[in-house]
TrEMBL record:
<keyword id="KW-0333">Golgi apparatus</keyword>
<protein>
    <recommendedName>
        <fullName>Polypeptide N-acetylgalactosaminyltransferase</fullName>
        <ecNumber>2.4.1.-</ecNumber>
    </recommendedName>
</protein>
<keyword id="KW-0812">Transmembrane</keyword>
<dbReference type="InterPro" id="IPR001173">
    <property type="entry name" value="Glyco_trans_2-like"/>
</dbReference>
<feature type="compositionally biased region" description="Basic and acidic residues">
    <location>
        <begin position="1"/>
        <end position="14"/>
    </location>
</feature>
<dbReference type="InterPro" id="IPR045885">
    <property type="entry name" value="GalNAc-T"/>
</dbReference>
<keyword id="KW-1133">Transmembrane helix</keyword>
<keyword id="KW-0464">Manganese</keyword>
<dbReference type="InterPro" id="IPR000772">
    <property type="entry name" value="Ricin_B_lectin"/>
</dbReference>
<dbReference type="GO" id="GO:0006493">
    <property type="term" value="P:protein O-linked glycosylation"/>
</dbReference>
<comment type="pathway">
    <text>Protein modification; protein glycosylation.</text>
</comment>
<keyword id="KW-0328">Glycosyltransferase</keyword>
<feature type="region of interest" description="Disordered">
    <location>
        <begin position="1"/>
        <end position="44"/>
    </location>
</feature>
<feature type="compositionally biased region" description="Basic and acidic residues">
    <location>
        <begin position="28"/>
        <end position="42"/>
    </location>
</feature>
<dbReference type="GO" id="GO:0000139">
    <property type="term" value="C:Golgi membrane"/>
</dbReference>
<comment type="similarity">
    <text>Belongs to the glycosyltransferase 2 family. GalNAc-T subfamily.</text>
</comment>
<feature type="domain" description="Ricin B lectin">
    <location>
        <begin position="307"/>
        <end position="428"/>
    </location>
</feature>
Length: 432
């Protein structure tokens, strides 16, 4: 029984691999075709050789669909009770499948991945990867590998075969019960090309009652490439941000603001309609993102008014202070109390001066203008440069953040003057 199940699954995984091959290699195929063939050249149709393998079924999309819709199409066509998704650029190691199937057979709400070994992009050499890793992310919502904690690594030394709970899956390689995949809502098929779908399915599995595991007894090699070997209609950054926004909007509740703070440009990317996915979340009675953070990924640092990237902007013993004002309010100067709160300001690499999710903004390009706190939108009137000597100059016009009228009008932008004490600001990190 076990063996037959395994054979069926293998059958299905290859058929999906075919579908993905077809989708991902569409561009390559057209390039191949455009080359004038030499006499006697035989150019195989994409997937033709795969389809000669026993039990393999190749499914070709009529047009480019991207990986989410292609995978759903492969999954819909599969007949076995367990699905295995593998990128086309994988090589399975010995006995890779059984440990994965066992975990899913024991509990169909487990979604499991092998340890992903590295196949060299240049030489195809197979290089074993560390099994002390799991998948995580930061607030930019980009997947990253991270080392298990000291305690977890020690526990693993006692039993190196035990499953590793992972907050996120890399996305290219995993096994899932087919009925569970369907119940959970497959993939968000309004996502395009590549990216963000692993984030979305990871949040969904955890928040809706399942779990994600890496199974160290299973190893599959994967070619990690430096860039995508295909084009992204609309640009890879925009497609990735759109997909990621869809995941954040559906699954992260108010915590999505931390994503927008980390990637301000994403606020302006249209992400389409998410009603179906919100309905799915409601229907499955999925838990809130706060539950996920508390129970699955407590290591993710939540930016707060204490700690985090915050600091203060000092002028002698006085500090830049929001004076308790909120959106569209002006800011003032107040004796430093070094406890964050209204005096917590951060200067980002992009040149934003941030107080929580508000940015110090020059609303009009003119000297004498009162600065206001507005939603960070990455626009030019929020970009500043902290110069040597302490001046904070606007990126567009030669005005600097100035406190000389703070008692009357709040902090204003005045003609930059390196001799003016009222323009000299020092950024202090409150964490040290
Ligand atoms: Mn891949």
């Amino acid at each position: 029984m076990e063996k037959r199940l395994a054979a069926n699954v293998r059958d299905n995984h290859v058929s999906q691999r075919g579908a993905i091959d077809a989708a991902q290699n569409g561009r390559q195929r057209s390039e191949q075709k455009s080359r004038a063939p030499d006499k006697g050249d035989y150019i195989a149709e994409d997937g033709e050789e795969l389809s000669r393998i026993h039990k393999v079924r190749v499914i070709r999309n009529e047009k480019r669909e991207g990986l989410m819709r292609s995978r759903v199409r492969g999954a819909d066509a599969a007949t076995a009770s367990v699905l295995t998704f593998l990128d086309s650029h994988c090589e399975c190691n010995a006995d890779w499948l059984e440990p994965l199937l066992e975990r899913v057979a024991e509990d169909p709400t487990r979604v499991v991945c092998p340890v992903i070994d590295v196949i060299s992009m240049d030489t195809f050499q197979y290089i074993g990867a560390s099994a002390d890793l799991r998948g995580g992310f930061d607030w930019s919502l980009v997947f990253k590998w991270e080392y298990l904690s000291q305690t977890e690594r020690q526990a693993r030394q006692k039993d190196p075969t035990q499953a590793i709970r992972t907050p996120m899956i890399a996305g290219g390689l995993f096994v899932i019960n087919k009925a569970y995949f369907e119940k959970l809502g497959k993939y968000d098929t309004q996502m395009d090309v590549w990216g963000g779908e692993n984030l979305e399915i990871s949040f969904r599995v955890w928040q809706c009652g399942g779990s994600l595991e890496i199974i160290p007894c299973s190893r599959v090699g994967h070619v990690f490439r430096k860039r995508h070997p295909y084009s992204f209609p609309g640009g890879s950054g925009n497609v990735f941000a759109r997909n990621t926004r869809r995941a954040a909007e559906v699954w992260m509740d108010d915590y999505k603001q931390f994503y927008y703070n980390a990637v301000p440009l994403a606020r302006n990317i249209p992400y389409g309609n998410i009603q179906d996915r919100m309905e799915l979340k409601r229907k499955l009675h999925c838990k809130p993102f706060s539950w996920y953070l508390k129970n699955v990924y407590p290591e993710l640092v939540i930016p707060t008014s204490e700690g985090g990237p915050g600091g203060s902007l000092k002028q002698g013993t006085a500090c830049l202070d929001s004076m308790g004002h909120l959106l569209d309010g002006n800011v003032g100067l107040y004796p430093c109390h070094d406890t964050g709160g209204n005096q917590e300001w951060g200067l980002t690499k992009d040149g934003l001066i941030k107080h929580h999710d508000l940015c110090l903004t020059l609303p009009v390009y003119a000297k004498g203008t009162t600065l206001l706190m507005q939603i960070c939108d990455g626009s030019e009137n929020q970009k500043w440069r902290h110069l040597e000597g302490g001046l904070i100059r606007h990126s567009r016009i030669p005005v600097c953040v100035d406190s000389r009228y703070h008692a009357q009008r709040g902090i204003t932008a005045e003609k930059c003057d390196s001799n003016a004490e009222t323009q000299r600001w020092h950024l202090y990190n409150n964490n040290h």
